[in-house]
Amino acid sequence: MAMALRALGRRISHSDRFFSSLSEAAKPPSDGKLINLFTAINQALHIALDTDPRSYVFGEDVRFGGVFRCTTGLTDKFGRDRVFNTPLCEQGIIGFAIGLAAMGNRAIAEIQFADYIYPAFDQIVNEAAKFRYRSGNEFNCGGLTVRSPYGAVGHGGHYHSQSPESFFCHVPGLKVVIPRSPRQAKGLLLSCIRDPNPVIFFEPKLLYRLSVEEVPEDDYMLPLSEAEVIRQGSDITLIGWGAQLSILEQACDAAAKEGISCELIDLKTLIPWDKETVESSVRKTGKLLISHEAPVTGGFGAEISASIVERCFLRLEAPIARVCGLDTPFPLVYEQFYLPTMNKILDAIKATVKY
User: Fold this and answer.
1) Which of 160, 263, 293, 335 is catalytic?
2) Whole-model pTM above 0.85?
3) 214 catalytically annotated
């Protein structure tokens, strides 16, 4: 446990510089105030409920604010008919959400931890994703948004640290979105809620309180399926999403001290993902590194790698590198050995550039 807490401390120590460097990226046209990520999520939910009377928020313990307090104050303002607790039954939560959305409502369902989304897998994959297709577009559950915190947190162990995004990226009919910061989280979540398709919105729980930046208080949306180049470079392209962007930024800084110029891209939407932005960057740099917390085998980085090889084969100057989680269950005290750390990424950057 001590090792895990020290590791978390090391990750936190670099965060202020990282989020400061990204503060101007994709800035909506409005001033705001400094808030953390869970407060940005809370603001988005307030706006969604306030602007659309067909919107409902529900899940385990959401009425009092939830484990991470993302739903604080919603019950007091909008009442127990629109913000309510559910039984501890993930498949029931999503089954109910599908029915609610199919009746023309905005169903915003919370799965308390992404690790526990698996009991709802059949409802998401075989019902929500196929609802419109199997009816020939006569009916749909496009108003469904599933929120869930994912990823490492420093002490979560097997069942509170997983990154299951790639499971859902294999399913036609779903969108998968992961924000990197408060500003992104608010704008992307509102876009997901208002999108006419079912969306899985994974929130990096490590950043709920750690990530702080200026966020507009008004209503705004950020486009889905548009990756963002948040750092220009010429020697190698780096791609990530969610909390991993802070680690990649640290690696970019370290590489710059050794004369390596890294271009950093936040994918933001995994399905459907922005192939054009990634392709354009790789055609410029000739090299690509992909990093995510999920295990390397079958991770979404493999799909990105295969697609870029198909599109940019003659422009690649080195094998595509993947720096990801290990192919083991998520460990507790060995978390730092499992995670794709800054040093692992830096080593892969240097090896790829020198290939």
Assistant:
1) 160
2) yes
3) no
